[in-house]
Design a protein that fits this description.
globular
């Protein structure tokens, strides 16, 4: 059993030096960190936990397209114009072999904690919990 707030990821993630623009379904997102098992996104519309979406982005001139499950989502604040700001953690569920290989190669270029290296087998259950101080969106939350 894991403790609340404990990082349960099976694959390490790296924080990107610059957020990468992408799309989750029809929504524009910014990718904040990336690993072989998933990503953390910033966005302005609700993403429903336990739902799936197509995720597309370009990293180092390479187009990446895969399917991901929204593991968690929370509102982190509001923009100056009042628009809600969210962050979400997504776990990859369908990633073609070529995409996994590309991700592994890209991640090898980023420093990981000592003793950890990128592997080409992403976890379908890689997940993360948002910080406890942030309000979580439940799967049944209604869009405002």
């Amino acid at each position: 059993m894991t403790r609340r707030g404990q990082d349960r990821r099976q694959n390490p993630r790296v924080s990107l030096s610059e957020a990468v623009k992408g799309q989750a379904g029809r929504q524009e997102v910014l990718i904040l960190d990336l690993g072989l098992g998933g990503v953390r996104l910033a966005h302005t519309d609700v993403l429903r936990p336990r739902s799936t979406c197509a995720l597309r982005f370009t990293l180092k001139d390479e187009s990446i397209a895969l399917t991901a499950r929204i593991v968690w989502s929370c509102m982190v604040g509001r923009a100056p114009d009042g628009v809600p700001l969210y962050q979400s953690g997504l776990a990859f569920t369908k990633a073609p072999s070529a995409v996994r290989t590309s991700l592994a190669a890209l991640l090898e270029e980023h420093p990981l904690p000592p003793g950890i290296s990128a592997s080409v087998e992403p976890s379908e259950s890689g997940s993360a919990k948002p910080p406890a101080t942030r309000r979580r969106l439940s799967a049944s939350a209604k869009k405002s």
